[in-house]
Here is the input.
Amino acid sequence: MNLDDEDLFRDAMGDVTPLKNCANTQWLRAPSPKAPRVPEQSEEQENFLTRGFLDIIPLTTALEYKAEGIQQGVQDKLRLGKYPIDASLNLLRQPVETCRQSLFSFMQQANKHGLRNLLIIHGKGRDDESHANIVRSYLARWLREFPEVQTYCMARPQDGGAGALYVGLRKTDKARLENRERHAKHSR
Here is the structure.
């Protein structure tokens, strides 16, 4: 360092006081560049979402799905945006295979973290054969393949309208147990 650099450094560090007690500081080792990270086999699943031939859904047909046993009121509240969105996935202008992989990963993470209400943005197409409508048609098929998906419907205009879907997921077993315990305390 030259003289000017040293003066600048002293000026910058003039009011800094050194740490006295560093006994509780834990230094972590940098990961070894030679050891590649191996994904845990128990958490990683095979992507089961279908590929191949697809019946294209016309743009004039609204996307809606409600699993058996789900009350109409749940879907109505979802459609009206009454549930807060926990996470969103943007699939705009992505290849279909990338959308498939992204959706699978997104749904695994949502399930792992106990998320309930999702927004998936797929985009709007001008005609039935547009890329956005092809992705939309695949989404309609893929979302039904997830057992945790209870319902999905078109989003409100401020969240993407016909170019997006609200997706409602089942509660995880952990969330169901916590909810049961919370309500059991109030009933005593």
Remarks:
- The two ends are 72 Å apart (CA to CA).
